[in-house]
């Protein structure tokens, strides 16, 4: 019996020692988990703070963008109003000038030694050109325009041709 009690006591001591070891390991695990939880909470607080800051900055940017968009819309509205004013002004000027006739080219003078526009003498160094348009007059270099392959024409014929083209 004593031997049996001694073996039971030894088994109980062994079991107690193992239980204490497990309890010690569990306490260490709990301490480690509490430390991890504390770090996770700190990280969570940092992330929450960063999120709040980012949201605040986003709201500020959105407000600035809205203000800028409002300014641009106002500028566009002002530009449209100005464009309408200019169009009305153009129409009024066009109506005023509608009755004004464009100058017709005068017939060429009979004297071929003078420019038909400025009446300058043609000499050895001042060249004469035949107007290749309506008036068929002789004009100097200053009173004529180059019209490419068609030659030159007087300024009045050139202006009349271009005003009819537009």
Automatic annotation (TrEMBL):
Coiled-coil region(s): 16-89
Residue intervals of the RUFY4-like domain: 9-95
Keywords tagged on the record: Coiled coil
Protein name as it appears in the record: RUFY4 protein
Organism: Calyptomena viridis (Lesser green broadbill)
């Amino acid at each position: 019996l004593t031997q049996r009690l001694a073996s039971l006591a030894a088994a109980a001591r062994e079991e107690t020692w193992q239980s204490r070891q497990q309890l010690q390991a569990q306490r260490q695990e709990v301490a480690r988990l509490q430390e991890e939880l504390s770090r996770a909470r700190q990280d969570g607080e940092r992330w929450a703070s960063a999120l709040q800051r980012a949201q605040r900055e986003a709201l500020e940017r959105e407000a600035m963008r809205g203000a800028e968009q409002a300014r641009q819309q106002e500028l566009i509205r002002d530009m449209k109003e100005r464009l309408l004013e200019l169009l009305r002004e153009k129409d009024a000027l066009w109506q005023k000038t509608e009755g004004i006739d464009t100058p017709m080219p005068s017939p060429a003078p009979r004297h071929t030694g003078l420019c038909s526009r400025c009446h300058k003498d043609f000499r050895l160094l001042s060249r004469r050109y035949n107007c290749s348009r309506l008036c068929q007059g002789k004009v100097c270099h200053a009173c004529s325009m180059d019209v490419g392959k068609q030659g030159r024409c007087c300024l009045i014929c050139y202006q009349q041709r271009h005003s009819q083209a537009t």
